[in-house]
Design goal:
The complex is a heterodimer of chains A (344) and B (74).
Chain A (H helix, E strand, L loop, with lengths): L1 H14 L3 E5 L2 H9 L2 H4 L4 E5 L4 H4 L2 H12 L4 E4 L12 H6 L4 E4 L4 H4 L11 E4 L6 H9 L3 E4 L5 H10 L6 E4 L1 H7 L10 E4 L4 H16 L5 E3 L11 H10 E8 L3 E10 L8 H4 L1 H4 L8 H5 L2 H5 L23 H4 L4 H7 L2
Helix pairs in contact in A: 1-11, 8-12
Chain B lengths: L4 E8 L5 E6 L2 E6 L10 E5 L2 E6 L1 H18 L1
Antiparallel strand pairs in B: 1-2, 1-4, 2-3, 4-5
The chains are: A alpha/beta (344), B alpha+beta (74).
Chain lengths: 344, 74
């Protein structure tokens, strides 16, 4: 690590100007904080976090909808990160106290193996969250007859939206490792910006930073792959086929961004009998939930876009803490607020 | 949500898309439908699914980095 760091220091001196690099994967955000990488970088190299936490970018409406389904007695299964995310009414965790059946899983496979969940599997709804990495797993269970409320997102359009909006100066992206394992390299080439796909260990991230600085110094704007151990140029074609068979790409809402064109995975018509948004349309259409005043103060949307640091939010670490989060960026272990709180 | 760990396929379960994967001594049933693999291949596993096949040297390098990371964090 020392050798890489020496080279980074040398390049930073040669570049002279300030350089802002954005990591766009929550697992990178956590790795950077856990290993204190920001502190050991030269002062003109700034790392900021982007929209890489799937829980954080999930639109409030979707969170309120799934909580409502749970409150109406429909068993809900989801990944653990989602449990404490506040809805306008309450969180999924709080809905349990109102009699809702909510289960968290590490893998969708547990729907078929967990002795408590298995008997319910024809009547439950899986709340599918995550980017391209977790989308094939959800596609797989839909093919096995499980009903899904999909908030899965195609990650690349969000990177494009950050550049198009130009509200923030980004000199380079540290691209997500396992999203890229699924989608490959080709999409990224549309962005005329320095990008390096990185693995998740501290050496990986530092090496990606070094590769980005080399590109910036030489005036290059290309896509490089530091994580060749796992990521291939074409990505996982089998997973892409499964995603395309079950899902179609639609414009969907992201917290902080609003609608991003072609960024959401929604179930194809062929599978609409397993689409919770259609199956439970009667419950969800016209559902009006009074906005929570607390949630209105949450600035997670700006944190996601790198516009503010978590500490710029007046709720941060005061009324909003991991044990009692006000917004999703403080809930998820990959959320920039949660990470900043734990490693401050 | 993007954590994934490498392991070695020690058994393909018959008439299914599943296999037993050895993660540094811990065996676990893994869904292999996203990869074309055979016994003794190395894979990287995310949320119960193998998402990519790995070369043995790349898998071992990742395991070494993870172990090093673990020691550094203590």
């Amino acid at each position: 690590m020392e050798k890489i760091l020496n080279k980074i220091n040398q390049l930073a001196k040669e570049i002279k100007k300030d350089v802002t690099l954005m990591e766009v994967c929550g697992t990178h955000t956590e790795a950077i904080a856990k290993h204190g990488l920001k502190k050991i970088l030269p002062p003109n190299i700034k790392l900021i976090s982007g929209p890489g936490c799937p829980v954080c970018v999930t639109e409030q409406r979707d969170i309120d909808n799934i909580i409502e389904l749970a409150l109406q007695g429909i068993p809900v299964v989801t990944y653990g990160d989602m449990l404490k995310v506040p809805g306008n009414k309450m969180s999924l965790e709080q809905s349990i106290r109102h009699g809702a059946k909510v289960f968290t899983v590490y893998s969708t496979e547990e729907i078929f193996t967990n002795p408590v969940i298995k008997p319910l599997n024809k009547g439950l709804v899986f709340f599918g969250i995550g980017f391209d990495t977790t989308t094939p797993m959800t596609a797989s269970i839909i093919k096995k007859g499980i009903t899904v409320y999909s908030t899965h997102k195609n990650f690349f359009p969000a990177m494009k939206a950050l550049i198009v909006n130009q509200k923030i100066k980004i000199d380079g992206f540290i691209n997500p490792g396992h999203v890229s394992a699924i989608i490959g390299l080709k999409h990224y080439q549309q962005l005329k910006l320095s990008q390096v796909i990185a693995g998740f260990e501290p050496e990986d991230v530092l090496m990606a930073i070094l590769m980005l600085l080399k590109q910036i110094k030489d005036g290059q704007k290309k896509v490089e792959n530091q994580y060749q151990r796992v990521v291939t140029n074409q990505g996982n074609v089998q997973a892409q086929k499964l995603i395309n068979e079950v899902f179609e790409i639609k414009t969907v809402y992201w917290r902080g961004f609003g609608p991003i064109p072609d960024s959401g995975y929604e179930l194809r018509k062929k599978y609409q009998q397993f689409d919770a948004k259609i199956k439970y349309r009667k419950i969800l259409t016209g559902l009006k939930i009074k906005p929570s005043p607390k949630l209105k103060l949450c600035r997670c949307g700006e944190v996601i876009k790198g516009l503010i640091d978590p500490a710029d939010c007046r709720l941060f670490s005061k009324s909003c803490q991991p044990e009692n989060p006000i917004g999703p960026c403080m809930v998820s272990r990959e959320g920039a607020c949660n990470v900043k709180y734990r490693f401050k | 949500m993007c954590l994934a760990i490498p392991g070695k396929i020690i058994k393909l379960l018959p008439n299914s898309s599943y296999g037993l994967v050895d993660f540094n001594g811990i065996e676990s049933k893994v869904n292999l439908e996203l990869v074309k693999v055979k016994k003794n291949d190395w894979v990287i596993v995310h949320a119960g699914f193998a998402i990519e096949k790995l070369k043995e040297q790349d898998a071992r390098q990742t395991i070494n980095l993870i172990n090093k990371d673990g020691k550094n964090s203590k």
